[in-house]
Amino acid sequence: MWYCRHEAQMRQALFFSAASIAGAFSGLLAFGIAHMDGVGGLAGWRWIFILEGILTVCVAISAYFVLFDFPETASFLTAEERAFVVYRLKYQGQVESHTGPQVAQDDQFKWKYVKAAFLDWQIWLSVWVYWGIVCPLYGISLFLPTIIKALGYKSSTAQLLTVPIYVTAAVLAVCVAYASDKKGKRSPFIVVCLCFIAVGFIMCVSSHKPGVIYAGVFIAACAIYPAFPGNITWLSNNLAGSTKRATGQAIQIAVGNLGGAMASNFYRSKDAPHYVLGHALELGFIGAGIVALIALVVNYRRINAKRDRQLAEGAHSGYTSEEMSALGDRALTFRYFL
Hints:
By secondary structure, the chain is an all-alpha fold. Helices cover 71% and strands 0% of the residues.
């Protein structure tokens, strides 16, 4: 439930891949439940809402009792286990070679940390990376069956052709997350995924053959689903202090999800069946995401190197542990995750 930054992407990927699997089989489930038409005097579509709604409510109620906000309040942990979890979370992100006193991350809520999140350059660059992933994600999620149907397949066949895409994407999301956590790197995996997303959309733009377009969508989707949890995790890894981290991730997701509003207007019915304009716009956002990612990596490397020099020169001696803690990810002892 509480993980250090080098452990986080696998958990994000498992959560996100579950949504992918749900997307793959929701149509099949709805198809089966719809055959309950007339049972209890209710239409089939009503049963879809009733059964899926009951399951959601039951899970939500159980989650209230089994999920805990903080390790300090987790009743299933012993006092020693709670202390260990709190320690490893508070002191993550520091340079390993630092021999001075340990600097804990500040868990207090202060408005200055909220303000710091809104003014942090890395959050807004991360939003552009997010758009480079989420615009294609929404484009595929909202219009994949329509695109496949427009290629000449029947509605039922179009739904079935989405299943292998989502299943493969879910598996790849978990595999890439495992490799990313194992290597302790985020950016190399994200940029490779962005390049594959671009390849997929280039295939869609450059060919009118149904098989090539389907292959392009397949490649793009299989790269989107590993990239999304990687990007979310990467920003979380590089924000220190619980208030700033929570605010920063809220900004990233809230502003980033405007990509859904944009992507929903990329694919116009008059552009069917090839949707060249929609695919081209997606490519533009992918390119912007790659540029933003490169800018993040360059700046992270520069800042980490500068802090290494400052620590070697003893610049940290002018700060107390409390002052370092309040600085969060701007502290000399904090190193950005690449």
